[in-house]
Amino acid sequence: MLKDIIERVGPSRFVRTPTGSHLDALVRSIVSQQLSTSAAATIHSRVVALVGKEQPLPEDWLALDDPDLRAAGLSRQKIAYIRDLARHVHEGLLPMAKLHAMADDEIIAALTQVKGIGVWTAQMFLMFRLNRPDILPVLDLGIRNAIRRAYKLRKEPTAKRMHTLAKSWEPYRSVASWYLWQSLELPVPARVETSG
Questions:
Q1: Which residue in the list 60, 104, 134, 140 is annotated as catalytic?
Q2: Catalytic status, residue 65
Q3: Is residue 123 within 8 Å of residue 94, measured between CB atoms?
Q4: List of the chain residues with pLDDT < 50
């Protein structure tokens, strides 16, 4: 149960102070897809070095040549994703300056119009960039595994069951999710649910 996890993990360290721009945070998310943290950081620093600015603007990303981005370590697919993101921001289709004032669902809808940004990436942006307190990332494998362990379930929970279990966590499901991620570092409970 979540109460036990909170007692074992201790005080929450969920809230972060974001650095850089929203655009950079999303570019980092795209670069990081299916890569280790260290590999993603190396490629991101190479790509930013190509731009020559710590905080590249959308037009800076659009001006880069594909061969240079490929040489920096980006796949063709990720180059296309970053260009689509930059185009959305440049054309005002993704209103970066207004995101903080938008509702969670509106932000997810806006972000997922960009190629390469799915619901999970949008939810991570909401949680760790905008510090939104009530996000439950049901697509996250770690969260699913943590709920399975915490509630001693035989099978991975469905999204519907996760929402049911998380009802009592509102309006702080982001904090609850942070605790669930931390719980994966704790010893595994021995008893397993028998009812299925």
A1: 140
A2: no
A3: no
A4: 194-196
